[in-house]
Queue: 2 jobs
Job 1
Amino acid sequence: MEEHFFSIQPDQINTDHFSLSESESAHYTRSLRGNPGSIIWLLDGHGMAYEGQVTSTQNQVSGSILQSIPNYGESEYAIHLVIGLIKGSRMDMVMEKATELGVKSIHPILADRSVKNKLNMERAQRIIISAAKQAGRSLFPTIHEPIQLKDWLQSHEKDKKLLGHMTGTLSLANALGNEKNEVYVIIGPEGDFSTAEIEAMTHANVEVASLGPRRLRSESAAVAAIANLNQLMEG
């Protein structure tokens, strides 16, 4: 049986009862043509999922909570994506695929060669929630406001950081080492990071890893890096 996922705010859960928002109720009744009696899954975005049974579709979809499952659809480790801000639908794709692949947060960076310096945060949040529902994730990744690379490096001085770049001499596995808990993977913008930015990252103890012999677009590099890190950190 196909599972249908809906986002829900914690205050829409009352012990063993739930009610969907107006927009999610409309999706259930109009797009899915749902009826009372159906089983649906509710995702609160903070790491909790609920299995529910619809009892009413009058005005607002509501029903009973059958069970609650913490960390539904989530990994025990944390991958964070740090990416030079890119433009248009390519940034949309990055946020969507990174969410589907399980990242815990997304950090857009303003780099020397960035061709864009703003991000529509409301749109970004909608993309992330939609992708999380598609993937069945109970935790919706945090999307951060874009900041300068130097400021980001300063605020993450002690974190494990990897840069995916063609100049890397280490494999992704060697750059990751024995880290199995949390890592920040950094991907450049369309025009790549400048030489000065790469030097600044190496001075900030960022490991530079190769993602293969081919030059990848930013969105492709992000997907490749996250997918490979998932495999390496699951063991």
Job 2
Amino acid sequence: MKVPVLMYHGIHDTPDEEGCFDPVYSITRRQFEQQMRWLDENGYETLLYAELDTPRSGKNSVVITFDDGDVSNYTVSLPVLQQLGMTAEYFITTDWIGTACYMNAEQLRALHRAGMALQSHAKSHRYLNDLAEKDLEDELIGSKRRLEQIIGRPVTGLALPGGRGGVKVLQIARESGYRYVCNSELGINTAHSDPFSLKRIAITRQMSLEQFRRLVTGNRWEIGRRLLRQRMLDGMKRVLGNTLYERVRSRFLDG
């Protein structure tokens, strides 16, 4: 079974709307609605990670994820998903809960009551591969505990901030009780995919509905050209380091 995992962030029509606008990752409400309708009309069922081994029907499957915890995840994505009978996984940066632009604890509980999954995006959104072991443990264990206190259920999933991980990060994630880890590497997962190296499809503002369709359906040309660009970006990260890389990333991620 091939399962595309979609990676969203915020949903903002304009930079001055509620939430934290990002020129690359903030998509419009119309884009999101069109993409969700396309999935629905083309026979895709949304699954949570815990359901991947037990799909509910013979339909194609897709996992929808959101990173960071932008308030638009509650105000925009939740009503759209509920209207279509869909579910999603929300990876929350716990130090941002209740701060400007981000969801508060009650909004997180509302997502949980609606059947959505709440998982960890670490505490502070610092790149985990930059951290000493003690700080890394604090990021992974601290965020997990806080979310569990808010929603009253185990948190078993982690999305790596910025997709940055490594052997030590994954080792501590396992030891901390996580059962799966999402990165930002482009690709489509299968039943044999490593649960601690789950690939995702980043949805960006400049992406057309046709490009979305090709990525979800695993079009080799669309995925191949994006993988080529991703490898170039990975090389830039190694040469420039995380801080300098962030200054130039938006020039290469649009589209």
